[in-house]
């Protein structure tokens, strides 16, 4: 039976990649987005650090940005609360960084067969899962409120793939948390498999 640390490494790696994709959203890459708004004036896509009009202009890259969409000037998208929520989108890359730390500690834990490092792996995966869950809840509020305001004005808006990347990463990090714990404390714990006594 293989050591559960290996699936844990895989889950943390997958979560890191998923959160990296979610973070490299508009204004950097317009294929990934949290919300797609279509009007005759163009398709606006929203990301972690800004937004783009597809085949057109992008906003500057910044933590927190003013919400607006091409052809939707009559809809109040940039209200104070929603604008403030855009600052919290930075939690996507932060959760991704925690996934990265959990991967690093997992690899170190294997390399030097140290249980403490495997426990740290699990702790960072848990923190990443928690931050990821918080920001996913914020995503659901922010993007759905915007979507509903646009729908009320008869403008087409739908949630984008970045939301599902985020929730998949949260699942992967919870799985990593559990499997790493199993790796640290189960009967396959690295040290014990190597004959070491704790
Ligand atoms: C967006 O809303 C924030 C907070 O109310 C405000 O400070 C900012 O000037 C607004 N930006 C635009 C372009 O309306």
Topology:
Blueprint lengths: L4 H19 L11 E5 L2 E5 L4 E3 L26 H8 L3 H21 L3 H38 L3 E4 L1 H25 L4 H4 L5
Antiparallel strand pairs: 1-2, 1-4, 2-3
The structure holds 2-acetamido-2-deoxy-beta-D-glucopyranose.
Walk me through this protein's architecture:
There is one protein chain. By secondary structure, this protein is an alpha+beta fold. It has a single domain, classed as Up-down Bundle (Butyryl-CoA Dehydrogenase, subunit A, domain 3). Helix content is 58%, strand content 9%. The protein has six helices and four strands; from the N terminus they run H-E-E-E-H-H-H-E-H-H. It has helices at residues 5-23, 80-87, 91-111, 115-152, 161-185, 190-193; strands spanning 35-39, 42-46, 51-53, 156-159. A four-stranded antiparallel β-sheet has the order 3-2-1-4. A hairpin with a 4-residue loop joins strand 2 and strand 3 (51-53). It is elongated, with a radius of gyration of 20 Å. The mean pLDDT is 93. The site of 2-acetamido-2-deoxy-beta-D-glucopyranose (NAG) has 4 residues, from helix 2.
Strand order of the largest sheet: 3-2-1-4
Give the total of domains. 1
Helix content: 55-70%
Q: Give a count of the beta strands, DSSP E runs of length 2 or more.
A: 4
Provide the CATH top-level class. Mainly Alpha
């Amino acid at each position: 039976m293989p050591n559960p640390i290996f699936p844990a490494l895989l889950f943390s790696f997958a979560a890191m990649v998923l959160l990296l994709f979610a973070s490299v959203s508009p204004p950097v890459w317009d294929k990934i987005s949290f919300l797609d708004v279509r009007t005759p004036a163009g398709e606006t896509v929203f990301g972690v650090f800004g937004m783009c009009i597809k085949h057109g202009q992008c906003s500057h890259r910044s933590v927190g940005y003013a919400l607006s969409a091409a052809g939707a000037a009559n809809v109040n998208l940039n209200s104070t609360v929603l604008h403030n929520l855009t600052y919290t989108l930075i939690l996507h890359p932060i959760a991704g960084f925690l996934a990265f730390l959990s991967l690093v500690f997992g690899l170190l834990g294997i390399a030097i067969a140290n249980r403490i490092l495997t426990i740290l792996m699990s702790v960072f995966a848990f923190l990443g899962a928690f931050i990821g869950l918080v920001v996913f809840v914020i995503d659901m509020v922010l993007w759905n409120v915007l979507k509903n305001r646009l729908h009320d004005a008869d403008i087409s808006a739908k949630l984008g793939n970045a939301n599902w990347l985020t929730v998949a990463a949260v699942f992967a990090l919870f799985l990593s948390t559990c499997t790493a714990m199993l790796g640290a404390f189960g009967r396959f714990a690295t040290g014990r498999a190597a004959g070491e006594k704790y």
